[in-house]
Amino acid sequence: MPGHWSFDELKSRVSSGEIDTILACFVDMQGRLIGKRFHASFFVESAHDETHGCNYLLANDIDMEPVPGYKAASWKQGYGDFVIKPDLTTIRHIPWLEKCALVLCDILDHHHHEDLSHSPRAILKRQLARLKDRGYLAYFASELEFYLFDETYESARAKHWKGMTTASPYIQDYVIQMTTKEDAVMRAIRNGLFDAGIPVENSKGEWGPGQEEINVRYAEALEMADRHVVMKNGCKEIATQMGKAITFMAKYDYSLAGSSSHVHNSLWSADGKTPLFYDKNAEYTMSPLMRQWVAGQLKYADDFTYFLAPYINSYKRFQAGTFAPTKNVWSLDNRTAGFRLCGEGSKAIRIECRIGGADLNPYLAFAGLIASGLAGIDEKLELAKPFQGDAYGGAKLREIPKTLREATDTLARSKMLKEALGEDVVEHYVHTAKWEQFEYDRRVTDWELHRGFERY
After folding, report:
1. Is it the case that residue 2 has pLDDT exceeding 80?
2. Rounded distance, CA 276 to CA 392, Å?
């Protein structure tokens, strides 16, 4: 695959001394790279086949705390091993780390060596298999936004994440003169990712002081999810090396724009040559297949919102007038809606889901979009007329779930997702969501202290 090294090429580069470290990484529920640093010689001799890790790593929270109540792993079961199986088609050079390459891994059951069903990569692979059975190939692209700070992570922590200096003091959306001031970091990110085999198209200023967006070329869904997690990790590592900090929080400041991860998706023939969403004679050039796909995503948007917005903070992004959507409607090139038609009149026609935040796990988000799109095809759903106007003001329009608690409830009730992903998978992530809510509900926040310390 373009941008990747073959295993033979890796062995050659290890033999020549060009590479001495291999990162063998899988993706956890939070979308982070988790794994081991191997001496390159040992990896190419032996560890390329498999290594092992504690199964609590897919049954913990963002603080790495083992969470009680999971069926898949627990203290009672002893937190045993699972297999970390390198996918040797994903080897890539990591140029911002010295003599380093990375390989992404699948997670297998320790006993029967089959994919762990609740592993994020396995969840997406299962949906891609459903597409393949029908002769479809899914192309995806995720656009990542983040805030760049003239702080280190250490200085931000020392300030208790208050009064931090952003890379720009005011909004610099598309403004070249302002983003030039930030380009030492952004250039390093663009070039570093590109040299790692991730085809960066551009970066730009976004609608917040110090806010950035980076876009990479679309790809098959699994490859795009792989690029997404390497990209997020790389942005943080490169910024750290340059004495800066980045956040992918959906809403780090109430008064500023949130950070999104818009997801573009379309279906093509199995060979990737024929766009199945394009019909030059149809209304808006949307094929019947595309209309059913979009109708399914709209019908089941509430069911999979958790996969687009997995934290308490995620829902604070959904504010009117901020370019973040608040309504589950589709539109023609309208950024106030949850779903936007892009590329009308061309083979690049696609639907953009604007609901997801920069904090999403791409494997789970893509899987939810595919499962709902396939449900729309299976149910032969009719697509409503596109919304026109300001969706923020549409009082009768269906709201995107407003809280994690609401999204958790819709996920738990989703018959469609239980059939598509498996009941155990849905139960696993419902438990994850409920733990996140529980942890928040029992904490005392700065906002509560400010309002109530003297006044209650």
Report:
1. no
2. 31
**Reported confidence tier of residue 173, pLDDT bands at 50, 70, 90:** confident
The band of 119, judged by pLDDT with boundaries at 50, 70 and 90, is very high
Alpha-carbon distance 364 to 438, whole Å? Answer: 22
List, for residues 344-357, the tens digit of each pLDDT value.
Answer: 999 999 999 999 99
This prediction's pTM = 0.96
Distance, in Å, from the CA atom of 404 to the CA atom of 441, rounded to the nearest integer, reads: 12
Q: Collect all residues with Cβ–Cβ distance below 8 Å to 61 and sequence separation of at least 6.
A: 67, 432, 435, 436, 439
**Segment 69-90 mean pLDDT:** 95
What is the residue type of 48?
Answer: H
